[in-house]
């Protein structure tokens, strides 16, 4: 509750609503500084493409936005915590990582998955080479499709990556990866309530040759991402929403 004379600071990223408990007047100001400048300027550019009023404000503000970029703090990364999956209970996983939105690398969690010893680029090309996948040079690329075999054999001149939504191949490929104890029932993973077809649409294989990658982004539906590395190595840097 907010009383007369009090000031509420609501950081970026909070869902919020307002109910007037009595006749009410307040003054609200949008606050931008080093803590949220990067995300604010990005959102401003995105919204200006669809909202004429925002577009006008964006255009008039460009000289000032240019100076703001010089004031942005250098992004700092930190080591993501690592834990042993054999000793991790779901309640601890939920409390220590999911609820506070802390990323974590879990070791020894999928050691019994057949995919770890079977899957590599040659395996996918041999067994699923005729399957069509989406491929990208950047996140701005859309609707480019190519068979897996052709994708892995084509010299694009620059690194590309590919996304394969499992769909019709879900049941076949699931033989090589299965539920893990942290997410093995619908109380731990609500998506298990969904019919198999919908479940398959939430499972993707990402593949890319050396040097490819995905630019900074946020998954727009607010889902947690569970990414099991099957073959090769990659880096995955995370940044808090406010930055």
From TrEMBL:
Q: Which Pfam families match?
A: Cupin_8
Q: Which residues form the JmjC domain?
A: 1-48
The name under which this protein is listed is Cupin-like domain-containing protein
Gene3D superfamilies, sorted: Cupin
Q: Which InterPro entries match?
A: Cupin_8, JmjC_dom, JMJD6_ArgDemeth/LysHydrox
Organism of provenance: Candidatus Kentrum sp. LPFa
Q: Which domain of life is it from?
A: Bacteria
């Amino acid at each position: 509750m907010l009383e007369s004379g009090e000031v509420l600071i609501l950081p970026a990223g909070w869902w919020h609503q307002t109910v007037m408990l009595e006749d009410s007047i307040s003054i609200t100001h949008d606050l931008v500084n080093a803590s949220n400048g990067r995300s604010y300027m990005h959102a401003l550019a995105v919204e200006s493409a669809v909202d004429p009023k925002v577009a006008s404000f964006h255009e008039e503000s460009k000289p000032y936005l240019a100076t703001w970029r010089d004031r942005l703090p250098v992004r700092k990364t930190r080591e993501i915590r690592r834990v042993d999956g054999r000793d991790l209970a779901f309640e601890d996983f939920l409390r220590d990582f999911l609820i506070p939105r802390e990323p974590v690398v879990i070791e020894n969690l999928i050691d019994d998955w057949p995919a770890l010893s079977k899957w590599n680029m040659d395996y996918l090309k041999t067994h699923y080479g005729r399957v069509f996948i989406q491929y990208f040079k950047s996140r701005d690329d859309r609707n480019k499709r190519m068979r897996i075999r052709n994708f892995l054999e084509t010299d694009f001149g620059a690194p590309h990556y590919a996304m394969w939504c499992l769909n019709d191949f879900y049941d076949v490929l699931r033989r090589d990866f299965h539920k893990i104890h942290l997410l093995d029932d619908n109380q731990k993973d609500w998506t298990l309530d969904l019919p198999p077809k919908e479940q398959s649409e939430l499972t993707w294989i990402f593949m890319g040759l050396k040097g490819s990658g995905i630019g900074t982004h946020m998954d727009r539906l607010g889902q947690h991402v569970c990414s099991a590395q099957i073959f090769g190595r990659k880096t995955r840097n995370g940044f808090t929403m406010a930055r």
